[in-house]
Amino acid sequence: MAAAKIMLETPERVTIRTALHIGASSVSMMIAEQSQDGRLQMIDFLERPAPVACDIFSLTAVSLSTTERVVSIIHGYQKHLTEFGLDSHSISRAMASNILSEATNHEAFINRIHIACGLKIDTIDDGEMTRLIYLKTRRRLKDLPAMRKDNTLVLHVGPGNTRALLFQEGLITRYTSYRMGTYRTREAVDASHAEGPSLLRVIREHAYGNLAQIRYDYSDVKIDGLVAIGYEIQAVSQTITRNKQSCTLKVLRQFTSDASQLSDVELIKNYHLDYQTAEGLLPALEINLAAAETLKLSEIYIPHTEYEQGLLHDALVSRELGDRFAEEVVRAAKILAERYESDPRHGEHVADLCQHFFDALKDIHQLDFHDGLLLRVAAILHEVGTYISPRAHHKHSEYVILNSEIFGLDRLDVTMVALVSRYHRHSGPKLDHPAYASLSIDNRIRVSKLAALLRVADALERTHVQRVSKIEIRKDGSRLLIRLPGLRDAAVERLAMASKADLFEQVFGLRVVIEEDS
Fold it and tell me: pTM of this prediction?
């Protein structure tokens, strides 16, 4: 009841926000106060174990008993919310680990929770996971000044996948993902019945292919430091580092060896873990150790913060990330464009023109900030297909983008970018294009709007020499009038517009006309 009193006396300028997470090995909930400047202050945190990932990797589905356990835990949390004077169904964010998507019954699991608890659970996708890792890493910049000037690799060993983010001078320059995680590895090696040092050897042998890929992916960079984040390794971080920021690989190697000789029960007792965390501890330790050795490092940084509390905190702010995060996404797009030798001046100029149209026509397209970011990325990447062949390069661009990873974008985002890039020339969207047809009708409309804007912007950069530097736009009845101050002869742009503005007219009902500059 004391907690309820605190909540009732909270000043009106403070907003109460809650986050619930169905994780790989637990269900957790945070209640926090958010001030007007956006800062969050945790006022309560709850966590109870549930073997979700263990079920998925051993049974390929979440068992009925685990499903009902999760329902029971959430009911308990909802009761707790009512004791705080809050609506039990007004949880700001309710989400599930992205590993849930690998369960054959993931939809039935989500539906059961929706019916039993009245909550709509969103599964964290790759794009959201990278945003959460990004936020965790940004906090590390304060703790590790070297990250602002050195080449630092941030390694997140999750339940099913491992993600790596390369920071150079404090900026993200590379993002890679590997099918190598704690529970995926544990399930794969359990059949060996190995114990102690033999188990560690089996874990490393199983991870060998992914470790070799990490070595190859970062062979062109001298890695100065490694930051390890993840539920299991952060659960024992203070023991490993002895309350320091880092430990030597010799210390980590000895700790891992000692832990391998303990039973799960002994791990639980010695390190105050729950059973699910104990199951995933050895793979987490050995994968991080092997990665550090692969990169020829002598020490490793392990944050002391509580992983789950940090994740819930970041989940409440990740969707509010603005310009700084967008800059990281755009930088990732530029790096991808450079890899495929796309003309950076052309791509970035088209992106600037797209931004101008996007801002000037907000009342017409009614798209949001994230859509604008996707448009900018598509503009930067729209000609990467020329790396394969100039002929039909719009189709090659779609293929390249669909088969690439772009930091901060989930698979839907990447698909949208690929399609918008494809439709920068020749035919517009058609339902016999598989990737386009697979989208919902709302997302097909978004693709059409963004592609229409890209085509108009690209028409103004037909010469690839950045002739157009200023644009004036005004709507006149059924026409969109474009004036290009300083450009005396717009014959080339007018010709290009005649072949590219068709989609704009189809989507927005406006005929694009380039006026003479007097």
Answer: 0.79
